[in-house]
Design goal:
This protein is mainly β and about 350 residues long. The protein is built from two helices and 20 strands.
Length: about 350
Amino acid sequence: MSDWSQLPDLAARHSGGSVVAANDEFFAERENLVTDEPPVHRPHTFNAKGQVYDGWETRRRRDGSPGPDWALIRLGIAGVPAGIVVDTAHFVGNYPPHVSIDGCGVPGHPSAAQLLEADWHTLVPVSPVEGDTRNSFEVTTDRRITHVRVNMHPDGGIARVRVHGSAVPDPQWIDDIPFDLAALHHGGRVAACSDGFFSPPNNMLQQGISRFMADGWEMRRRRDGGNDWATVALAAEAIPAVLEVDTTHYKGNAPARISLDGYTADGELIGLLPPVALQPDAPHRFRLDTDTPVDQVRLNVFPDGGIARLRLFGRITPAGRASLETRFAATTSVPETQE
């Protein structure tokens, strides 16, 4: 996918992202950095420390040091970042003149103290930023990242940080464990779709129950007699067994029917589920009868509507597991570049 902004946000709160520590958050809390909703501003809204900002803001440095102020973000989805957005929305006289971002890959559940001692490497070098702007930075790395460190030089405020990239699941969690082949967490993603007018299709591959209508995938109303569709690249080649499709919150705009096709490694299209009716605002589960491995599926929506969540459970093939192991090893064993 050429436009990295369409890749999942690995740091998003709804995907499990969290800001685990910051050296200072005097004016505004660090947790705001990964809030799912866009930043908002309410002028003349004050607390005991000043104007309330929807972001992370540190105090002004008075000791003459160059900084930086920093915040540690645990990614909800470990993976390889392709681009990072540092959004300074509504910060106009108090944004940092420069930022830099580092990444590291640490297994398990490290503490903030352990992270500070980790082997960090540069994702975004010290770079100028503008106020009240979505500052975008392309990232070139082959390393699997679990945490990022956002640095403000020397201080200031940032509204949001988005880390767009591709998930790299740990193969140890796919054996004898129910495995959702389509989940963003596992490396699934929407490779193409007919329409995402009201909300993007990757939404339906998120964790948990859909929170509201815009938290799923919704298309515009079709007037041409055709149907909508989304092609999902699976975490790895597998034999799908169970499809779950949830239309929660879609009451007057749920699809009438869906069907599911699969693509084999050589591009052959096979039917996995014939057209079936859906109910509005309801979860659905369908068994799939196939022994043919696929690495992509196409969800066909008749004629249009909204899908809150899509899950696809199945068995990874030996070839699929080998590909996961190869990618995991390749992204966790890259030699450290000397900074």
